[in-house]
Amino acid sequence: STDHSSATVKTTCPYCGVGCGVNAKATGTEGDQTHPANRGRLCVKGSALHETLTPEGRLLKPSVRGRDTDWSTAINEVAGAIRESVDQHGPGSVAFYLSGQLLTEDYYVANKLAKGFIRTPHVDTNSRLCMSSAVAAHKRAFGGDLVPGCYEDLELADLLVIAGSNAAWAHPVLYQRMQASARPGRKVVVIDPRRTATSDLADLHLALRPGTDTILFNGLLVWLAHHGVVDKHYLDAHCDGYEDSLAAARSVAPNVDAVASLCDLPVEEVNRFYEWFSEHPRTVTAFSQGINQSSAGTDKGNAIINCHLATGRIGKPGAAPFSLTGQPNAMGGREVGGLANTLAAHMDYDSPGARDRVARFWGTDSVADGPGMKAVDLFDAVERGEIKVLWIMATNPAVSLPETDRIRQALARCPTVIVSDCVRETDTARYADILLPAAGWGEKDGTVTNSERCISRQRRFLPLPGEARPDWWIVSQVARALGHGPGFDYQGPADIFREHARLSGFENDGARFFNISGLANLTDWQYERLAPTQWPARGGEPDADAGAQRLFTDGRFATGNGRARLIPVGSRLPVRPPTEVFPLVVNTGRIRDQWHTMTRTGRSGRLLAHRPEPFIDVHPEDVRAYQLMPGGLATLTSAHGQFIGRVRVAPEQRRGEVFVPIHWNRQFTGQGLATALTDSLVDPVSGQPEAKHGRAALAEW
Ligand code: SF4
């Protein structure tokens, strides 16, 4: 046997989409100096990684309806439930809910089994809650889900616009890189209703009214046009839709006074932002959940991209719109088709010939007919009884989806809930009929892709505890039990990665964008040693795109005619404004030292020390108006539930708006959840829920 405990391996941190390289062993972690994402840096979550690898609470054995069992029995139970459901109710009665925590290889195999062999289209992922609006905006503008820039652009930019992101807490190492690249003349604008740790870097903080981002960026487009700053040559050569987008922008944001009034900002601040934007050709606009988690998230993304296209600020060093993804492998899941509206390898169902091509590649008669249900719709279907078998992998929807009480009812009603996880007791696992012990970080091998399209290895350095197995193995065993063995005869993750890479270039010679076929012939040895690699990575010579830092450098996009599209967007505001009964706007988000629903980071005392309990950030005047005790407990009550937290007097909040952290779950508090305060309202294009704009009443507890 191998002694895994003393070896140091290069791997990738699982606690955010920056994707830092880590030198890891069981007793500690340090930053990998050779990894391009972090160059040796780690944030507190990365440096406390080993503290979150505790054996306590691990799920170590398969169980079926509360009784521990062996793998063979559990696999047969899963396969039997799927077979019976398909026979009686059709393939669409089976659904998969995946996670940006899965490795690309796990994701690929789950997607292949679901869409290619069970033939259900209902495969969605918790990435829906994270960056699906950015995905939709990319597709509308560029013809594909393509992040144009890279981390280096954040350092090269002369104007850094950070919109809807507390990067200092949510993407700490990227924030450190932004800090370290400060130089005389570099300007930073932070756009966020509240003043956060990220605002410390700002030369200008625009504390706009929540939900008015499209107005601010539409106003910018109008201003740029009025002042002759648009790049007519670039627009003529490479873009469609400028005139229509400008007309739409003019209709909602005709001048700076109107923008300032609608966004609740001082006129001079809006002017300063617009002037700085016009003066700095090297501009990066980094955007994240404050943009995405909105019922107008896709429009917000396109309003930002419109301004970059109109000024030709894309595909150049230090100039790009840049989506910061939340999860370690949100991007890898997108690559394999983990979103319900995609098929595989960045192909949509309606991509010409895609269904036939994928079916032939997978060696199956046909694939699922068309797009499946997105997360919120999917759980509505579970609630209605339409989904009979739901397989949830590496995520905790009973905490993370909005209107969590309804999600719990839906899970309780579902005839067969299968949960694969490395943690035994989660809020979701309580509803599992079949529990499958999955390998955790450090115990599994594969790849993840970070926010700058960089594929990076997660490597195993710990033995598998108990009966835990990698997710790809579990899914492959179920596929075999269903009679699909030949398509799932993988000996390890390298086999899966090679197949995934081959599919990206299969009969797809014209693809210039998501194509990693240059990695399709890696030997096991090369896969084991694979260095971080940005895609595209095509095979063949010459290949100017291999390991491309930037896309669209030649002004050609992934649309049918090769031209980018500016998208006319209006000013759609949050769907449910405050009322007399629920007078406060609830903003939800991350804190610095926790990850998602705390099932792992909550085990580290060091990480808990930063914010040891749920809290509510309240403006001082609201503290007085609601007669709250600073440091005392208060309740936020919405139409869907309640959240109890300690009152923090927070001058950084706008009046009438509160902030609560997303992380605490019933395992930790026994109380309500932040997601009980947000509605299931979604963006009509992306399906992403409006997690930044709940409404609630506030009172002393
Ligand atoms: Fe891990 Fe993100 Fe911190 Fe890097 S910034 S160490 S990826 S949590």
Question: Could you characterize the architecture of this molecule?
Answer:
Residues 6-68 form the 4Fe-4S Mo/W bis-MGD-type domain. One of its GO terms (cellular component) is oxidoreductase complex. Its cofactor is Mo-bis(molybdopterin guanine dinucleotide); [4Fe-4S] cluster. Keywords: 4Fe-4S, Iron, Iron-sulfur, Metal-binding, Molybdenum, Nitrate assimilation, Oxidoreductase. The structure is a single chain. This protein has 701 residues and is α/β, with parallel strands linked by helices. The protein has four domains: 9-52, N-terminal domain of TfIIb, CATH 2.20.25; 63-129 and 329-498, Rossmann fold (3-Layer(aba) Sandwich); 132-324, 3-Layer(aba) Sandwich (Dimethylsulfoxide Reductase, domain 2), CATH 3.40.228; 584-700, Beta Barrel (Barwin-like endoglucanases), CATH 2.40.40.20. It contains 25 helices and 28 strands. Strands 5-4-18-17-16-6-7 form a seven-stranded mixed beta sheet, with helices on both faces. Strands 24-26-25-28-23-27 form a six-stranded mixed beta sheet. A five-stranded parallel beta sheet has the order 10-9-8-12-13. The protein is globular, with a radius of gyration of 24 Å. The chain starts with 8 loop residues before the first strand and ends with a strand. Residues 541-545 have low confidence and may be disordered.
